[in-house]
Design goal:
With 105 residues, this protein is α+β, with helices and mostly antiparallel strands. Helices cover 34% and strands 32% of the residues.
Amino acid sequence: MNNFKTVFLESADEFIKKTHKKLFQNIRIAEQTNNPKFFKKINKDIWEFRVRFSNKQIRLLAFWDKRNKENTLVIATNGFAKKTQKTPKKEINKAEQLMKQYLEE
């Protein structure tokens, strides 16, 4: 039984096309388990899907849309290859901006 369904905005979809199917496998595992190894909260609103692929740390940022209590969604916003220990503030800001746009529409 899934805990949530994930929806991909255009910018996230473009990034995903450049990665391997492992990202999707980890997302499906996260949907079923909520394991922080695959899906982790990074601030009040933004979470990250976490994937290690070809010795690279791939991150796909997301947020929860709980407006419909019967159909909770996790909305994936943008992705990047992580190069440092910390998640770049630029990427978090982009995710927050996309979240704001999504929730206003």
